[in-house]
Design a protein that fits this description.
transcription regulation, alpha+beta, 3 domains, transcription, 306 residues, Metal_resp_trans_reg, HTH_ArsR_DNA-bd_dom, Arc Repressor Mutant, subunit A
Length: 306
Amino acid sequence: MPIVLSESASRGRGLTILFELEDLARTRFAPAPLPMYELVFAMHRGDWDRLLLPRIRPLAELVRPGRFVPDFFDSARPDFDEAVREVLDVPATRVRDQIVSMLGTTSPWLRSYAAGTPASRQELRSALTTAFRELLAPNWARTRQAFDAEVRLRSAQAVSRGLGDLLGHLHPSISWTPPALHVELAWEAEISLRGTGMLVVPVLNGLTRPAVSMFAEPQPLLFYPVTAPQPSGGSLELALGRTRTLVLRALTSERTTTELARHVGISLPTASQHATALRTAGFVSTHRNGRSVRHRLTRRGWELLN
């Protein structure tokens, strides 16, 4: 089963994941950003310099625009070199089946890789290493910091609100109605976890909507996008102003007004003012949880950022 990326779908359509009590007990967050997935989603997004293509062509041939990514890229190793070894150790029969069913042997290199030749595997190793070095390595420290901040925030939410409620607020296209998690996809199915739980993976690069890998081992994976604060301005900052843009980006993770003020480095009244303005414009939703007020992006807010 390939990695399935979410697309805009009619409300109610998509993947329904049934949880049992044991699944909730075994569901956890990834301990660190997972470099193979970060790289694959960055490649899939397509906004990389085409001057790189001659050096990463094997990877570009395997990761193409569309709803699916071959599942032989499934590696939840936090160390990139170990993840590369795991990808290259996937049995040739599984690689061939995925290529034939999803991509077709439309190039000499794809035919060579589907046949399992040592040379093609070495070429993919080189492409993976080059792509990671050029696309992700320069900002990997910032990726780690943003990932750690996201997991700390979500851990606190799980303690205060429960895991089911937390899962249902990871992204506007994910919802929780006990005992099921629903992910809006153009692909429709109902799957029971049967005690395995899920690995929940925040993704900092490339992903704009959730993705799933339901038959990854040892447990299925749920990916959702997190936007790291950007070091420099852009067209969005010209339209909204730098502070309001930082507030918008900060609310890719749900935050209280106090957390928002601390994250952006502004006063509490200023954070409240910006959150109110963004809510009035339809980019942010606000709800009360006990004595705190919590804010998060709406679907329209996600579309504005992405």
